[in-house]
């Protein structure tokens, strides 16, 4: 019977909650932090790699465009604060992600040990050590973020540089009549 089912059209699966008119939102459709890098298939969702992707985002271009839109110093400072808060949220989410990974790995270590799969258990222990190393790196990044130092300072410097370039462009085009 299942052999000849290839000619039938697949039915759409109802993704809505029972009794609800609105379909469930997929994780990828959830709201993203303001002006955060948009996740792609190459950018990780969570963990230390996601934090690095966030830190490497092009905040200079963002600052430049924001200055052209609203050349106010308080606007610049508010956006820098928002980026810092988004980074803190990403760090907290990464800790939760790694905590879940550790629990999952520990479960598999226990069950595979009871099953006598020694080689697999050794691989899982190595994986666990790697996750612990990532947690330590996230802790370091968290400390730097709290102290406005290290790599997290890149956000402020990059955004501020772009914002200043935008202010300069406004002055050159409006006051000095220079076309860019």
**Total helix count?**
5
User: What fraction of the residues are assigned to beta strands by DSSP?
Assistant: under 5%
Q: What's the structural domain tally?
A: 1
Class per helix and strand makeup? mainly alpha
Described by strand count, sense and barrel closure, the largest sheet is:
none
| Principal-axes shape call | rod-shaped
Structural overview:
α1 (48-55) runs antiparallel to α3 (73-114), α2 packs across α5 and α3 (73-114) runs antiparallel to α4 (118-146). The model is unreliable at 6-35 (pLDDT under 50). Helices cover 62% and strands 0% of the residues. The protein has one domain. It has helices spanning 48-55, 59-69, 73-114, 118-146, 153-174. It is an all-alpha fold.
Name some characteristics of this structure.
180 residues; single chain; 5 helices; mainly alpha; 62% helix; rod-shaped
Quick overview of this protein structure:
With 180 residues, this protein is mostly helical. The chain contains five helices and no strands. The protein has one domain.
What is the element layout, followed by pairings?
Blueprint: H1 48-55, H2 59-69, H3 73-114, H4 118-146, H5 153-174
Helix pairs in contact: 1-3, 2-5, 3-4, 3-5
């Amino acid at each position: 019977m299942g052999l000849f089912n290839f000619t039938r059209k697949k039915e759409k699966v109802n993704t809505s909650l029972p009794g609800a008119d609105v379909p469930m939102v997929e994780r990828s459709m959830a709201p993203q932090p303001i002006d955060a890098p948009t996740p792609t298939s190459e950018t990780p969702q969570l963990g230390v790699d996601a934090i690095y992707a966030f830190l490497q985002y092009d905040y200079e271009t963002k600052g430049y465009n924001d200055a052209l839109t609203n050349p106010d110093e308080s606007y610049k400072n508010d956006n820098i604060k928002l980026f810092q808060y988004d980074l803190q949220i990403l760090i907290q989410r990464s800790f939760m992600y790694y905590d879940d990974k550790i629990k999952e790995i520990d479960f598999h270590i226990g069950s595979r040990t009871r099953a006598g799969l020694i080689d697999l258990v050794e691989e899982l222990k190595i994986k666990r050590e790697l996750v612990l190393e990532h947690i330590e790196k996230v802790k370091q990044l968290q400390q730097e973020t709290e102290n406005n130092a290290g790599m997290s300072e890149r956000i402020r410097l990059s955004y501020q540089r772009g914002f200043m370039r935008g202010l300069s462009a406004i002055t050159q085009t409006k006051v000095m009549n220079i076309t860019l």
